[in-house]
Amino acid sequence: MTRITATYDLESPIGVAAAAAVVAGEQSTGTFTRLAAETDALRARSAARIEDIVITGTSPTPALPTRKTGTSYERGRVTLSWSLDNFGTSLPVLMSTLAGNLFELAELSAIRLIDMQLPGAFATAHPGPQFGAQGTRDLMGGHTGPLIGTIIKPSVGLGPDETAALVATLVDAGIDFIKDDELQANGPHCPFAERVAAVSAVLNAHADKTGKKVIYAFNVTDEIDQMWRNLDLLQAHGGTCAMVCVSAVGLSGLRALRDRSPMAIHGHRAGWGIYSRSPDIGISFGVMQKLWRLAGADHLHVNGLANKFTETDAVIAQSARSVQQPVCASGPAHLAMPVYSSGQTVWQVDPARRLLNNDDFIFCAGGGILSHPFGASAGVMALRQAAQAARDGIDIRAFARQHPELEAAINTFPEPDIAVTQGQNRAS
Amino acid sequence: MTRITATYDLESPIGVAAAAAVVAGEQSTGTFTRLAAETDALRARSAARIEDIVITGTSPTPALPTRKTGTSYERGRVTLSWSLDNFGTSLPVLMSTLAGNLFELAELSAIRLIDMQLPGAFATAHPGPQFGAQGTRDLMGGHTGPLIGTIIKPSVGLGPDETAALVATLVDAGIDFIKDDELQANGPHCPFAERVAAVSAVLNAHADKTGKKVIYAFNVTDEIDQMWRNLDLLQAHGGTCAMVCVSAVGLSGLRALRDRSPMAIHGHRAGWGIYSRSPDIGISFGVMQKLWRLAGADHLHVNGLANKFTETDAVIAQSARSVQQPVCASGPAHLAMPVYSSGQTVWQVDPARRLLNNDDFIFCAGGGILSHPFGASAGVMALRQAAQAARDGIDIRAFARQHPELEAAINTFPEPDIAVTQGQNRAS
Q1: Is residue A273 within 8 Å of B111, Cβ to Cβ?
Q2: Could you say which residues form the signal peptide (chains A, B) (predicted)?
Q3: Does the residue A250 lie in any domain?
C-alpha cells in the first residue's frame, strides 16, 4: 500500500459522483479553471483518485447551508486516494489535504471525513506512543488489571494545598491514576509549579511507603516552550505523566511535547464536539486518533459508556477499540490506552472490558468513587472487584454477594442501560 | 474589564436558561454532582457567571442528535463570563474552557461560540503580529495600495524549477505577492529546500533589478522543529514571509513559529469549514481570528466576496473587518491584514476595499490574472487600476474607458452579484 485513502460521507446538489470529482480536484492538482501547467503527466502523478462511490439516498433539502442549490441533494459515501509523493508523511499537511478546503466547497451540502487508511511509511516516520499500556504499568512499578482512576474536582478553583490534600485521600484509597481537570493548567489560583510540588510530595511519600507509584496526569497544556519547561519541572519531581488537550495545542504541539517527553502523554479531547456532534460536518474519532497516536499520545479519552455527554455507546465502543488497533497498514502498531470517563460507576466496568477483550484501559470515575457509601477507599475497591468479576467472567451481582464494597456500590448507583458486544481485539 | 466573556448561540431540550447554567458549571467549578469541596467561597471566586440570556425561538425537533430529548427545543443567545484568575492568559487553556467539553453536552442540541471579549491582559501577554500591514509593506522595500497577489497552481505537482519558472512570469508581470498552495509543503516532488532555493533566486534577481522585493509566502507547515529549520533556510535565502496552515499546526504551533520568526506569518485557514459550515455547531471567525492574531499571524485569509466556497458576502465582510479591529478591550491593537482569495477578479476590488475603507489588504487572484486576454502582466495591471479607481472613488466602468487593461478585464470576467456596505474601519 503506497497510497493514502480517505472516506467521506457527503451530500451534494450536483450529485455524489460529480461532487467527488470536485473534491478530488480541489485537494490535489485542480483549480476552478484548468490551467495550461496542469498537464496530463502532472495529473497522472499527482491527481487524487476516486476509488469508490456508494449512493445512499437523496433529500429534498440541503443538510447544511450552501451557495449552490439543486432540486435534490444526493447523499453517498466516497473513497479517494492520494499518492504518498504529494506530501510525504507530514501530519499537518495530511490534515490540510484530507480535511482542508473541501469542507467549504459550495458543491457539498454535507461532508464528513469518516475513515483514513495510511501506508506503513507513516508508522515508521512518526514516533507513536512512547509507553502504551505496558509502559504505563511499568511507570507505576508494575500493575495488573485496568487502571482505576479519577479526576480532581471541582474542575477549577482548588489551590495547590487543597489539591494535594484531595490527592492524599485518593492515594490512601488505593487509586491507580489521577488527572487534572482540563480547565486546570497554570492559573493564578493554582500555579502549575506549586501544584506539582505539593502533589508530587504526596505521590512520592506514598510510593516510598507502598512501592506503588500512583500516576498523576498533570495538565501541561500551554505554549510549546512552556510545555517543555513543565516537563522539566515534572521530571525533577519524579512525575510520570503529562496531560495535554490535543485540540488546544494542535497536532504539531502534541508532537513537540512527545519529542521531549520522558513520561507518558495523556491525551484529552476537550473541544471534541466540534468534530463529532454533527452528522453533516466533521471528522470521526477513528481518523483523529490515528493522527494523535502517530504524534505520540499514550492515552486517549474515548468518553464512557452511558456517559453524560451525547456520543452513543456504539461510538464509544468503536472509539475504544480503534486505539488498540494497528495505526497503519504495516509498520509499528503504535497502540494506545483508551480512557473511559464521564458518569462511570461499577456498572460500566464489565461492558467497558468486554468490548476490548483485555484490561489495557484506564477507567475514571468521580462520583462513582467519592459517593460510595463506605467512602472513597471502598469506592476504589468496588471498581477493582468489578474488574475482577469482568476478567473472570462472573456476573457482577453474583460476585457482589461475596464482596460487600461491590454490593454497596451496585445498591447505590443506578444501573444504566448499556448494549455493547464482545470485542475482537486481542485478549490480555 | 477583568473578566473574559463568551457568547453562544444554543438550543436545548431543557430550556436556554437551564442549559446556560449547565454550561457555566461544566466549564468552571462544577461536576454532575455537587461535591463537598465545591464551597460557596470557591464558587464565588471561580464559577462562570451567566451575564445575559436572550430567547430567540423554539423548534419541535433538535438541530443536532442528542442523548437528552424534550417536547420542544428552545433556542437563544447566552453570554457567560469567567474570572481571569481561573486560567490566566494561556490561549490553549482559554480554548479548552470556552470551546471545550461544552460542545458535547447532552443538554444542548446546538451550540456555537459566536463572540469572545478579552481583557487587555491578553493583548499584553501575547506577541501579536510582528509586521502587520506597514511592516509587510516595508519588507517589500515600500509599497502603496493593496497587495496584488496570486497562488501557485496547480495546487500540487509542479517541481521546484517549474515553480520558479512560473514565479519568474509572475514577478515580470508586476505581482506584489505570491503564495504556495496549502497542499504544497515539503513533498518528494517539490522539496521545500529546493523550492526555496529556486524561487528565491528569481525573487532576489528581480529585487536587484527593480528594487522591489516581491513577497513569496512559502508554506512552512510541518512539525515545530522542522518549521524552525524552514525559517532558518528561508532567512538564509532572504525570505520575507512564512505561510502556515493554522488549524493543522494548532494554536501552540502558530505561537512557536511566531516566537522564532524573523519574517511575516501568513495564516491559511485550511479546514475552516469544520468550524464555520454548520449554524448549529462551531466557532465564528470573529473568535478564532483573535486567537490567531494574539499568537502572531500577520495575514489571515478571509475568503473573497462572491467566492467559490460557501460563506456569504456578509460573513466575508465581517471577517475582513474583524482582523483590523483591536484584539482586546485595551492594550496593543495587534492588527492583521485580511487576505481575499477564491474566484477573485477586478470586479471584487472596489467592494473589498469599500468594506474596509483602507488599502491594508492582500487581494489574491488566479484565473483573474492568468486568464486576462492580454496576458498576466495586463492581468496584474488591471487589478491595480481597479484599486486606483476604488481609492479615488471612480466607477470601475468609467475608469476602464481610459485604461485598456481594466477594460479588457471587465469585458472578460463576468460581473458577480455583490452587496456590501461602507466599512467603519479607519481610513488609510
Answers
A1: yes
A2: none
A3: yes
| A244-290 confidence digits (pLDDT tens) | 999 999 999 999 999 999 999 999 999 999 999 999 999 999 999 99
Say whether the ipTM exceeds 0.90: yes
Residue carrying the nine cell digits 492538482: A29
B221 with A90: Cβ contact below 8 A: yes
Indicate yes or no: CB of B310 within 8 angstroms of CB of A274.
Answer: no
Our count of domains for chain A comes to: 2
Look up residue B368 and give its three cell numbers. Answer: 483573474
User: B18-69: per-residue pLDDT in tens?
Assistant: 999 999 988 887 654 555 666 778 777 888 999 999 999 999 999 999 889 9
Domain CATH for A65? 3.30.70.150
Query: Do A305 and A328 fall within a single domain?
Result: yes
**For A206-236, how does the pLDDT look when each residue is reduced to its tens digit (9 = 90+)?**
999 999 999 999 999 999 999 999 999 999 9
Q: Residue A316: phi, psi to the nearest 5?
A: -60, -45
Q: Is residue B14 included in any domain, yes or no?
A: yes
- Same domain flag for A297 and A163: yes
pTM: 0.96
Residues B14 and B107 grouped into a single domain? yes
In the A/B pair of chains, how many CB contacts fall below 8 A?
378
Evaluate whether A115 touches A287 at the Cβ level (below 8 Å).
yes
Sheet of strand A3-12, all strands in order from the earlier edge strand to the far edge: A49-59, A73-83, A3-12, A110-117, A281-283
Provide the 8-state DSSP code for B124: H
Residues 222-261 of A with CB under 8 A from B: 222-225, 227, 245, 247-256, 259
The total number of residues written for chain B in this structure? 428
Q: What is the CATH number of the domain that holds A242?
A: 3.20.20.110
Domain that holds residue B215: 132-412
Cell of A3: 497510497
Residues B258 and B361 grouped into a single domain:
yes
Boundary (domain end) residue, out of A117, A141, A176 = A117
